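tokens incoming
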């Protein structure tokens, strides 16, 4: 049994971590800089993010490997560093996690469109993710989070890469926004369709992250819950982003987010954390609410 499965047996509602990008920015990551390079060049700063979420009470932390696929790294001329950057990212989080906390390796979009919209074939996409998956597994990941996906085809290609290369569990998380026609990814994928397709493709956990605050996430998770019996993953942003003095700011406080956590759980969320704009204080407050209820 995987460490994630054991965690889900022990806890009704495990708590996941919060944002990594904004936390690294607080530590000096500049716009345009490749975050994954910090796994080698500024590993202490990356470790401090991981430790901060462990200390905040997270049961699950991710890794600084979101943009670690070869296709994504190639845009910065770093394709040949793919394996090293991903292994190092997992090793940093594993050291911070100790024995209690589960480490799920982050796999984000490549930034490329698959055929027929783009030039990348399905097999090329699977192969790209397979290289990343293998390095993450070598680093000691307990499982994977394929996250912030808009294209269902790309998400399933990443899931295939996991299934074909190791026996570790995979969470697959899409990004939805609310529009006139309801909830959908920017590629037009609706929550129930995503939940059904990802369940059939072999995901262990499905869900949503980014794209919206917790108020909208409640509706998204509610729709996914109607389409699958798998555990649901929810990592909303700290509200909608606002531009203040040239800086992107997320204004939802830990208390404001935590107040909506019971409704998110009632909608069907099994694992709750945060995405853009959330910090250790958000996760600490969410953990307090969840553990008080459970």
């Amino acid at each position: 049994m995987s460490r994630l499965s054991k965690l889900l047996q022990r806890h009704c509602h495990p708590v996941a971590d919060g944002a990594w990008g904004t936390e690294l920015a607080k530590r000096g990551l500049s716009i345009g800089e490749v975050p994954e390079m910090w796994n080698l060049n500024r590993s202490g700063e990356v470790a401090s993010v991981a430790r901060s979420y462990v200390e905040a009470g997270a049961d699950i932390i991710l890794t600084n490997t979101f943009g670690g696929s070869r296709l994504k790294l190639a845009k910065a001329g770093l394709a040949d560093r793919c394996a090293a950057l991903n292994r190092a990212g997992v090793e940093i989080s594993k050291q911070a996690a100790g024995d209690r906390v589960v480490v799920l390796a982050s796999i984000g979009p490549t930034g490329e469109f698959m055929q027929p919209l783009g030039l990348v074939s399905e097999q090329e996409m699977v192969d790209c993710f397979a290289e990343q998956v293998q390095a993450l597994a070598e680093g000691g990941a307990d499982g994977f989070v394929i996250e912030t996906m808009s294209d269902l085809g790309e998400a399933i290609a990443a899931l295939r890469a996991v299934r074909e290369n190791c026996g570790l569990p995979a969470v697959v998380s899409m990004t939805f926004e609310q529009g006139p026609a309801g909830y959908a990814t920017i590629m037009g994928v609706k929550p129930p369709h995503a939940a059904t397709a990802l369940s059939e493709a072999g995901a262990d956990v499905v869900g949503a992250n980014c794209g919206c605050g917790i108020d909208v996430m409640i509706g998204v998770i509610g729709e996914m819950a109607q389409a699958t019996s798998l555990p649901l993953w929810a990592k909303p942003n700290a509200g909608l982003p606002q531009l203040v003095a040239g800086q992107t700011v997320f204004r939802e406080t830990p208390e404001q987010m935590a107040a909506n956590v019971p409704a998110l759980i009632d909608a069907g969320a099994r694992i709750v954390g945060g995405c853009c704009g959330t910090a250790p204080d958000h996760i600490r407050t969410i953990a307090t609410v969840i553990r008080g209820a459970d």
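note: The chain has a mean pLDDT of 96.
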